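Open question from group meeting: does this chain pack into something compact, or does most of it stay loose? Before anyone orders reagents, we agreed to write out a predicted structure and look at it together. Recording both the input and the output here so the notebook holds the full record.
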Amino acid sequence: MIKPKKIAVVCDYALNSNRIGGMDRFWVAYDSKAKLLGYEIDWYFSDYEPFEFFSELTIYSANNQNVELFFLEKVISEKPQYDVLITHFVALCTSFFKSAKAIGIQHTIVVDHNPRPLEGFPISKIIKNKIKGVLYSRYIDQFIGVSEYTRKHILKDYGYFLDKKTTVIYNGIDTSVFVKRTQENKNKFIVTSHLRQSKGIQDLLKAVSIVEENIKNQIQIDIYGDGPYEKELLDMATKFNLNSIINFKGSSSKLNELYANYAYLVQPTYMECFSLSILESLMSNVPVITTTVGGNLEIIEHRKNGFIFEPKDYLVLATIIKNIVLGNFKIDNDVNFQIEKEFNLEKMVTNHIQLLP
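Structure tokens returned:
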């Protein structure tokens, strides 16, 4: 009898019972599919306190230590025999992958979710990435970008010689869990985001602050998420006298139900690969107002399923919001069909599973 192949999945990602999103659902679905095919699978996350959603997964927590080092030390000390290594949210082309081969990993797949800075990398990092590509890409069997944008940047960063072992697998979502919008709610906007400067939420606050008072007073914006930039955003809301308009709601595990209460998702981000929030909003039949960065233009078409503006251009964002409130800008068509067909969780899981040896 052939021994089942054993998979280790290493994710620089903290699991949180108050934030069950698209990737969380992907990991559960992937685990189930891999086991059905006879694979054994262990998961390594940067932090995890057990909760019901992940009860079927075998998870090891690095307790906020370096998850790559934690994985290597565990394999060296306890000697589990892994055939396949898969990484998510981990830096590409580092010495970690050389070390993984040295402890017996036969096949390595890396998934690149990492957005690139709007201004590009400094020259020192560009050179370092090229060197890392030459030194360490040989220890990686398959590179996966979550968008065409990401694939292009893998090649640009680490070397175009990686073309033949670099592919795209788009993110997908569990379309069955989303409640579809049935009411117009034209002046209610939702933001779902980690609160850090690169997400550009400060530009949304600036945009709302310059809209005429009679229009501003009709707007409601609810922000779901937390993060290191929260205090700055709260202070800015107070400075601009927006506390009756901007509501900070914290993290929620019920976003799949909440999107339907809003007219638009606003995502003024500076950095993105391929946003699960955009897919989730569209699946809820809620159009998206977002920037031209990353893979956004691979899913959002201006005035068809959302509105597009250049990152940091809060003047244009203010114009878009104003015209939505005035009724000059409106998206009447359903925006969820493409998500159900092309960006569903089953397709994403199948595409990832097919790359297993």
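Observations to bring back to the group:
The mean pLDDT is 95.
The chain is about 35% helix and 20% strand.
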